[in-house]
Amino acid sequence: MRNEYLYLKTVHFLEQEIKSGKYAPGDILPSDIELSRICGVSVATVRRAYQEFVNRGWIRRIKKKGTVLKDIFRNVPIKIGVITISDTPPFARILQGINSVLSTKGVPYIWLYNQDDIKENESVLQHCLSEGFTGLIVVPPDIHSSTTLRKLVSDGFPVVLLTRYGENFHCVCTDDYRCGYLIGEHFLKCGYRFPAAIYRDKPFGHERLEGFCEALAQGGLHLPRQRMFKVEFEEVQDLSHQHFCEREVEWLLSLEPRCDAVFVFNDHYAAGIYQHLLHRGLRVPRDIAVAGVDNLPQTMQPFPITTVDSGLEELGMRAAQLVLELHQNKPNFYVKEKITPTLVVRSSTLPTPAAALSY
Q1: Closest by alpha carbon to 10, among 34, 37, 41, 32?
Q2: Checking phi first, is residue 64 left (phi over 0); if not, alpha (psi -120 to 50) or beta?
Q3: Euclidean distance between CA atoms 47 and 330, whole angstroms
Q4: Which CATH architecture group holds 77-175+312-340?
Q5: Which residues are within 8 A (CB) of 300 and not within 5 positions of it... i.e. 6 or more apart?
Q6: What is the Cα–Cα distance from 157 to 56, expressed in whole angstroms?
Q7: Is residue 87 predicted with pLDDT exceeding 70?
Q8: 67, burial (CB in 10 Å: exposed 0-12, middle 13-18, buried 19+)
Q9: Tens digits of per-residue pLDDT, 286-330?
């Protein structure tokens, strides 16, 4: 066990020395004896560690010359793994942004799903690494649970978190608090007095809910807990499925006093709510107004939903640009970018008669 520990320790030391830029391609690395002294290990352990880097293609062992570093970074083609929760419309739009950057640069990529599952995410990450991918754009289920992601970032591997914020990660995300705030502000201007919220039980969903509640509070409205509906990740992701959002609409119609407007965490779900309200014979917005987030085009959802443009394609573009930049430079700080959202008003929300008279 101790010999294995010393071997891994030596491999890790060499890996960090090479990745730090201390040695340029063609430089001679420390001799076996010199490195054994530096690391406090046997010469046999050093030779085994060097053989690991020969197998990786990083170095050459040249008789009477020494251990020579190869130009490993220039010769390795860039290949990006894009890992999202699923292929739902919001992620499809993000991929459009990613594709617009990577395809222009001629960089190959593969789109994989983790199904919002921690174990599946780890499995997909390992698959990408085994296939020789050189960078990752990831929407992880839980940032802190992924030992693989943390290790990759600490080793300097190009990783960009998408739509998620992590303290020690490079991140590109929407200002989710602002998304919710804009809808809350809009509901107040429309004169809605009995709103409800359907939110995703994830950090971004809680931030959107928090912004929504804060805007209402500033207008003198308090959103009680019983008027908030929490959504977990579900297998049903298809708008055409007859049961999609059925339970949420059942809940909405059970509220007292009756709901006059509902804020839904994204347009995909908002469209499902809209569809079931119509099936129940209700009118949008006269009976219940509906608002979402993402600004999906009508090719992805069929209803004129008031929404917040969260910059999905811009998110994808910036994530792709950043992961390519990380291949060229290793900044000594973590890049954090937030896309500024904007309100898009459509006919799923309209001012109430009382609100209209006030203007």
Answers
A1: 41
A2: left
A3: 29
A4: 3-Layer(aba) Sandwich (3.40)
A5: 89, 92, 93, 267, 268
A6: 16
A7: yes
A8: buried
A9: 999 999 999 998 888 899 999 999 999 999 999 999 999 998 877
